[in-house]
Amino acid sequence: MRTERLVVANARGKYLALLLCALAFVAIGALIVLRQPGLGGFLIGGASIAFFGAGAVLFAFQLLDRRPRLILDDDGLNDRTLGVGIIPWRDIADARLLTVRGHAFVCLELRNPEHWTDKLSPRQRRLAALNQRMGYAMLNVNLAGAAVDPQAVLQRILTYSAMYEPGRG
């Protein structure tokens, strides 16, 4: 049985808008530093430059990053941001969509979650445990900033995991 390959990239338009906003706040911070004498202006403007400057670097990287973020194909699900490699369809027992403040996540219920969480760093394991305490799964596909319909990704994951379910013809 062959599955239709889905390759998802970053939403470049969204990252361009975020980059432009961050650069505007860096410019505002620079104006504050230059036009407001004293320590207060320096601290406020400097904080704006540092915070939004870091955001601008992150957004620029995401804008220029042309690597696929998420691939769904015959081999399984490969979310580059999870860092666990390809999760075969037979290992996905279920999935559900959760949205928080407009950011969509596909929560993966895995047949052997320890196999996948063992691939995470200690810091990532602590975050995964926190995810579970907040009502998410141990591993979640973060679709914020991805150029794809979250509902379509969920449907594809559910369909493919059912097709490759262990013991199924």
From TrEMBL:
Transmembrane stretches, start-end: 15-34, 40-61
InterPro entries: STM3941-like
UniProt keywords, alphabetically: Membrane, Transmembrane, Transmembrane helix
Top-rank lineage group of the source organism: Bacteria
Protein name stated in the entry: STM3941 family protein
Organism name: Lysobacter yananisis
Lineage: Bacteria, Pseudomonadati, Pseudomonadota, Gammaproteobacteria, Lysobacterales
